[in-house]
Amino acid sequence: MIYLNLLFSFFQIGLLSFGGGYAALPLIEQELIHDQGWITNQQFIDVLTLSEMTPGPIAINAATFSGNQIAGILGGAVATVGVTLPSVIIVQLLAYFYFKYKNIEMVQGIIQGLRPAVVALIASAGLTIFLTAMFGHSDWPIDLTELNYVSVIFFAIAIFFLRKFKASPIHVIILTGILGGIVYSIG
C-alpha cells in the first residue's frame, strides 16, 4: 500500500509542479511532512541537500531520496516514476497543442499568468529552506535566539563567492561541505 501511496503522492507533485524542480519543493514539503507525516522537516532539508549535491533535476532527485527514505529502494523507484510520469504525459500533449496554437493570444496570456505564480512557489521553497537552515525550523514566529551562527557564516561565504566571483555552485558546495565537516567535527 505504501508504494501506491508514494506513486499517487509523487504523481500529484509532478502534476502540479509548474516551473520546474524548485517549484515542486513546497509541494513535496506539504505532501511528505504535513499531509502524510512520512518525514520530518529536518529530514526534508537533508533530502534537499543531497538532491542539490547530486546530478540531475532536483525534483527527481528529491523524489528518489524521499521514496528511498520512506520505503527503501523500491520506494525510491516508485516515487521517481510518480514524479516524472505527469511530465512525460503533459509535455507530449503541450508540445502538440503549443505548436499548433502558439499564436493564439489566450495561450500567451496563460503563459504570462503562470509566471508570477511559479516565482512565488520558488520563493516560498527558498524561504522554507533558508529559515530551516538558519533557525532549525520554518515555523513562525522566528526567535532570533535560535539563530545558527555557523549557518549564517556559511551562507554569507556562499553568497559572497557566488555573487562576487561568480563561483561555480559545485565549488561552493564542496567548500562549504569541507568547512562544515571541519567545524562540526571540532565541535
Automatic annotation (TrEMBL):
Superkingdom of origin organism: Bacteria
GO function term, MF aspect, one = chromate transmembrane transporter activity
- Give the membrane topology: Multi-pass membrane protein
Tell me the compartments it is located in.
Cell membrane
InterPro entries xref list = CHR_Transporter (IPR052518), Chromate_transpt (IPR003370)
Pfam families for this protein:
Chromate_transp
This protein's GO CC annotations: plasma membrane
TM region positions: 70-97, 117-135, 147-163, 170-186
The UniProt keywords, alphabetically, are: Cell membrane, Membrane, Transmembrane, Transmembrane helix
**Membership in a protein family:** Belongs to the chromate ion transporter (CHR) (TC 2.A.51) family.
What protein am I looking at?
Chromate transporter
Organism, by scientific name, is Alkalibacterium kapii
| Lineage of the species this protein comes from | Bacteria, Bacillati, Bacillota, Bacilli, Lactobacillales
